[in-house]
Design brief:
mainly alpha, 2 domains, globular
């Protein structure tokens, strides 16, 4: 017997069916089935001992009563475990689906916040195009920060004009003036003479020309004047949140509609957003504006945002053949101004 067992173990380890390697309850059942088919008694005894070790006691009980008792106990435990698993299985897919949904939105929001703002968030390593559905949420956060600055200034007794200045300064500070830089670069590009390569070189230049400075001043005055004209806190809240939400909700539309103007840069690194990301961003932006501004203001603001984005995008395509990161920043700024002015006229 001392020589037969190693040979039997070697034969089992070379078994192409993998039954011995599996070592589970099904393996024991198959071994016991072969014993009842007419294997020698000594082999049946060895099989009973092996089944006892693996926890399968149906056949082993005929050879060894103690092993049979152990097998019955193991079967009872296994049946109880399967019953418990069967009772809890309906809740598991729901919980995992909820976790995946929350994780997907949360990761996208952190990535967008890390790119568009200076807020101290730990942005995950993911392409910005996968986070496009959260762009309106970033706009809502930036708009709320500007609104908070406006409300705090009024609380301190400052004038409406100074409160509007502080609100615009707060939004520029939290975004690092990222979009303002794009607006200035686009203005300098439009003001320079030359071909497409010359215009792209001007947009890459870190210095700001006279066209860029003048455009920034005019855009800032428009925003301050619109907020000061609205004056009342609820109207300012609706206008600021809607302007920042829609100005970012239209960006995925431009990213999918226009080609890239050059093979490198932030726009290339961000990637092309998927279709569902574009629809989610636009739909979520409209819903937020409906909630804060009402149906009439939402319709007017959404139409003005789409038309303004289309005009600026076509202007960029005419001059440089597509869009860049600076073009997207300029679109955000121009749409923001357009929405604020529309809220003034609508109110």
């Amino acid at each position: 017997m001392t020589q037969d067992k190693p040979q039997e173990g070697d034969q089992d380890s070379r078994d192409p069916t993998g039954e011995r390697a599996a070592g589970g309850p099904e393996t024991g059942g198959q071994e016991s089935g072969r014993d009842s088919a007419g294997t020698p008694a000594a082999a049946a005894g060895d099989s009973g001992q092996m089944d006892t070790a693996t926890g399968s006691g149906g056949t082993a009980s005929a050879t060894d009563p103690a092993a049979g008792d152990a097998g019955v106990a193991d079967d009872g435990v296994a049946a109880g475990a399967k019953g418990a698993a069967g009772e809890s299985s309906p809740a598991t897919p729901t919980a995992s689906a909820y976790d995946r949904f929350a994780k997907f939105w949360w990761r996208g929001l952190l990535a967008a916040l890390g790119f568009f703002t200076r807020l101290p968030v730990r942005a995950p390593a993911m392409p910005l195009s996968e986070a496009t559905r959260t762009f309106p949420l970033v706009g809502a956060i930036v708009g709320l920060i500007g609104l908070l600055a406006y409300a705090l200034a009024l609380r301190l007794g400052l004038s409406v004009l100074l409160a509007a200045v502080l609100a615009i300064a707060a939004t520029a500070a939290v975004t690092g003036a990222l979009h303002e830089d794009g607006l200035a670069d686009l203005a300098d590009m439009l003001g320079v003479r030359g071909g497409r390569e010359r215009k792209l070189a001007v947009m890459r230049d870190s210095t700001i020309g006279s066209y860029g400075v003048l455009t920034l001043v005019i855009a800032t005055l428009f925003k301050i004047g619109a907020i000061a004209d609205l004056a009342v806190l609820p109207q300012v809240a609706s206008a600021m949140i809607s302007a920042h939400v829609l100005s970012r909700a239209v960006l995925p539309v431009v990213m999918r509609s226009l080609p890239l103007a050059r093979p490198n840069g932030l726009a290339v690194h961000a990637g092309k957003p998927p279709a569902d990301g574009m629809y989610w961003a636009l739909g979520l932006g409209i819903v937020i504006v409906l909630l804060v501004g009402g149906p009439g203001a939402a319709i007017v603001a959404t139409v003005s945002a789409l038309v303004t984005a289309f005009l600026v995008a076509k202007l960029a395509q005419r001059h440089i053949g597509g869009y860049t990161g600076d073009v997207l920043g300029a679109i955000e700024q121009v749409v923001e101004v357009a929405v604020l002015i529309n809220f003034v006229t609508f109110s």
